[in-house]
Amino acid sequence: MVVAAGLRIAVLALLTTAVLAGEGEGNSGEQSSPMSVAVGATILGAMCFMMALFCLTNHKDPDMRKYTYEAVSTTISIFAAVLVFQTVNQVVEANLLDGKSMEYQLLVDTLHMLSWYILLQAWLAWTSGAIGEAPKSLDEVEINMKCYGVILAHLTGFASINAWVTMQHLEFFAATPMRSLLVIPIGALSQFLLQRVTDNLRWRVSMMDDGEEDEFEALWNETSEEAENDVMGLSISFCAAQALRFLISGVLPDNEGKESWSDATSHTFSQVGMIW
């Protein structure tokens, strides 16, 4: 069944490519247009990707199937988190940050990050049964915790990236590449202290009912710690990449890692090579 589906996709892609290539040829025998070639190559690439995905998700080795589905789930989670965060962040920027100083933007972005951080803790606490109604199935709770933990960790991570990169754009830190590097230890220490606070709060909540940590509360603590580590990893690594790009090229990218067209096209080959 999988092979048949793959063959149908391959035939469809080849026929589509042939049609697009034929459209680029006039009566005088002109060559295919660059757009036709690009579209055809994109279709062939998508076909190869889908066939590889079919093979991996139906692999005879259960471990291969497991890790394939985990990779697909994580990828979907990342893209979903990007869309949600960008939507919320654009609303915040349009209503609160337009024309404001960098210091004010840093304050709002930090509060935005803390809002996602609190939502992460509260949602996982409710899902695990640490607060609210006690769950009945540990397996169901574990699945839900992994689902919400991953997507909320990415949402919080993107908000954290936005806040710490905004700090890098303050006049003091944006003055030199070495100063922009200072944001890395500041961000790491701040998030480490925040993790200690949330860890203490989780312990207190776990001890409130019966004075001991049950398996659901232990799962809540474990999932929350994994999510917090993801948040720190995302934000610190992005800030490090920003600072290194600033050090190499002399240009500090914006909060999304973008540069103006004039800056992007003015780099030397050695700078491009070092960045890559």
Automatic annotation (TrEMBL):
Residues that span the membrane, as ranges: 37-56, 68-86, 106-126, 147-166, 172-194
Top-rank taxon: Eukaryota
Keyword set, alphabetical order: Membrane, Signal, Transmembrane, Transmembrane helix
Entry keyword annotation includes Manganese: no
Signal peptide: 1-21
KW Signal (keyword) present: yes
Name of protein: Uncharacterized protein
